[in-house]
Amino acid sequence: xxxxxxxxxxxxxxxxxxxxxxxxxxxxxxxxxxxxx
Length: 37
What we know:
This protein is an all-alpha fold. It has two helices and no strands.
C-alpha cells in the first residue's frame, strides 16, 4: 500500500490536474499565458 505521503501527493496532483483540465475546457483562450507556463 502507498504510504500517507504518497497518498497526499496523488490527491494533490489529481486535484491540480482536474483544475487545469476544467480551466482548459471552460476558458481555453482567455488566459493562454497561464496555461503555457
